[in-house]
């Protein structure tokens, strides 16, 4: 006993309407594309974090060097004595 194919899929809906399986497949494809996009975005953001961290470390180093130079200049300034301020 063979049933004739009548352009209906296994769940009985018309072929013109997307089936639940087709809808799920479309959704999965969409999610896979979105996942790939997010992975690329994440990789770019990680690169930016590394670059900004490197820049921050460089700026910290420059700040420490500048502080050191300022401290050295302050040490070279003459000390104020009470006789200097009385005049």
Radius of gyration: 36 Å
- The end-to-end distance, rounded to whole angstroms, is 124 Å
Quaternary structure of the protein: single chain
- Percent helix: over 70%
- Please describe the biggest sheet, giving its number of strands, its sense, and whether it closes into a barrel: none
Q: What general form does the structure show?
A: rod-shaped
Spell out the helices and strands N to C: HH
Calculate the mean pLDDT score and round it: 85
Strand content: under 5%
Structural class per helix/strand content?
Answer: mainly alpha
Give the number of DSSP strands.
0
Q: In terms of per-residue confidence, which ranges show pLDDT below 50 for 5 or more consecutive residues?
A: none
DSSP helical segment count: 2
Structure explained in plain terms:
It is rod-shaped and about 100 Å long. It has helices at residues 20-76, 82-86. It has a domain at 19-75. The chain contains two helices and no strands.
Provide key terms for this protein.
single chain, mainly alpha, 71% helix, 87 residues, rod-shaped
List the helices and strands and how they pair.
Elements: H1 20-76, H2 82-86
In short:
With 87 residues, the chain is mainly α.
